[in-house]
Specification:
Layout lengths: L17 H6 L2 H6 L16 H8 L2 H7 L3 E12 L5 E11 L8 H4 L2 E5 L3 E12 L2 E4 L5 E4 L12 E6 L9 E10 L10 E5 L7 E11 L5 E5 L6 E3 L4 E11 L13 E5 L4 H22 L1 H10 L3 H15 L1 E2 L14 H7 L1 E2 L1 H14 L4 E7 L17 E8 L4 E5 L17 E4 L7 E4 L5 E4 L4
Parallel strand pairs: 1-10, 15-16
Antiparallel strand pairs: 1-2, 2-8, 3-7, 4-5, 4-8, 6-7, 9-14, 10-13, 11-14, 12-13, 17-18, 17-20, 18-19, 20-21, 21-22
């Protein structure tokens, strides 16, 4: 068992520092994002007997003759009606070629943690080498800014990672951990989840996904892009839905994209309740942003009197001031951080950048409406209300002098109107004035469409 340990800053090694936790106030000890401890029930992770059986898949992995194979991957999502969510992940990798770039994520495994509401819990990390088992000690785990993210604007996220001992061909790396996501007044983490079926660059021999929810938050669960029948368990405090899938191909760079097989959980029974929740969070972000950027917006308005020039100045300012956090929209939470944090630190994820453009345009006295959008409608599931079925944010902006509205991608500074580029988009309205689904009509503006059921 690994001892409970923490650190005083995200730049120190994770040693055995139980005393520091004991000295913290209770609420700080609970929300410290870089806490490690042995945890988990038998249901959350593979048992030792199951791990031993999985290790026999080494021969199958060798026959594939690829640099990296995920022998087995179990994800267990526990959803609670009070908003709390715990994710248990157990991954067992076969390393065929340690020098290949695909193996970098195994040689230095890492987990990005939201410091405000998440606690990282380590179950085990070990290397199976022949008849030997090497334990990766806790002092190898460190905290730092997430790799490839803007170092000055990553708050409140950190990455917990470990530099493993030098791997050899044929090694099997096992990692089991949990992320405990606590409810706050600013986020309700159990509303929706996407669980990728595949991983980047490596085939998967066994994939096991479990969604557990209590009676208050009995949401909808389904898989898109893969034919698989769920196993449902009833009774007890939690209702459990399981998916078992075998022999999956290597995934793309973004395994949560709409082109990949993925499992969804949503607590919403219809699109109306989902839209209202998004509306509430987006409104807070936009309203706070307009107040924060009031003087800047007024200056842009005075300098650029024409709407098109003004909008272009808004896009260029956000592009110049805010670096993009390298996550796709489908891999994000769809919950924006506090605007003072994202704008003040000069870094934002796709949703935050889109809402910053909306707020600055509003401060510059422009009328803007926000939509979620997707281009591929073939596997759209209207019976599965989750924002994670949409991978773009589109803004509808009034160009007063031209007496028309333009549809733009707020993440592009070139003011390319998307109705001329991708006219087959499906858009979901967020505001009360746009309560449904829409497509771009012949005149370039939006037309309401019905989606079944």
């Amino acid at each position: 068992m690994l001892e409970e340990s923490t650190v005083r800053s995200p730049w120190r090694s994770l040693g055995t520092l139980r005393t520091l936790i004991q000295r913290l106030p209770a609420h700080l000890a609970l929300t410290a994002a870089w806490t490690l401890m042995a945890c988990g029930s038998g249901q959350a992770f593979y048992q030792d007997g199951e791990v031993s059986a999985i290790l026999f898949n080494r021969d199958r992995a060798e026959q594939l003759e690829v640099p990296l194979v995920l022998l087995a991957h179990q994800s267990h999502y526990e959803m609670r009606g009070n908003g709390r969510r715990t994710i248990h992940e157990h991954l067992i990798w076969y390393v065929g070629d340690p020098g290949h770039p695909f193996c970098e994520t195994v040689k230095r495994p890492g987990v990005v943690v939201d410091n405000m509401i998440e606690i990282f819990l380590l179950k085990r990390c070990r290397i199976h080498r022949g008849q030997d088992t090497l334990l990766v000690e806790p002092d190898r785990w460190e905290l730092h800014a997430p790799r490839n993210w803007p170092s000055e604007g990553c708050q409140p996220w950190s990455e917990v990672s470990a530099e493993l001992p030098k791997l050899k061909p044929g090694d099997i790396v096992e990692l089991a951990y949990s992320l405990d996501n606590r409810w706050t007044t600013s986020r309700i983490p159990s509303d929706w989840v996407v669980s990728p079926l595949v991983v980047t660059g490596a085939p998967t021999l066994e994939r096991h996904i479990i969604f557990s929810s209590d009676t208050i938050r009995n949401g909808r669960v389904d898989v898109i892009g893969q034919s698989v029948r769920p196993i449902r368990h009833y009774g007890g405090a939690l209702t459990k839905t399981e998916f078992m899938i075998a022999d999956l191909p290597a995934g793309p760079a973004d395994p949560t994209s709409l082109e990949t097989p993925r499992a969804y959980f949503t607590s919403h029974q219809n699109w109306t309740s989902l839209r209202r929740m998004l509306q509430r969070y987006f409104h807070w972000s936009i309203s706070d942003g307009e107040k924060l950027l009031k003087e800047l917006g007024h200056s842009i308005m005075e300098t650029h009197r024409a709407s098109r020039d003004r909008l272009k100045a808004v896009l260029e300012h956000v592009e110049r001031h805010c670096k993009g956090i390298p996550v796709s929209l489908t891999a994000s939470t769809y919950y924006p951080r506090n605007v003072q944090l994202s704008y003040g630190k000069g870094a934002a994820d796709p949703m935050e950048r889109a809402l910053l453009v909306t707020a600055l345009a509003g401060a510059a006295i422009m009328k803007v409406d926000v939509f979620l959008a997707r281009g591929n409608v073939d596997d759209f599931r209207p019976d599965l209300p989750t924002p994670m079925q949409f991978d773009r944010v589109i803004l509808r902006v009034l160009l007063a002098e031209e007496d028309r509205y333009a549809l733009i991608d707020p993440l592009r500074p070139d003011l390319q109107e998307i109705e001329k580029e991708t006219p087959d988009l499906l858009l979901m309205g967020i505001e009360d004035t746009w309560p449904g689904f829409y497509q771009i009509g012949p005149d370039g503006d939006l037309e309401s469409v019905k989606v079944a059921p």
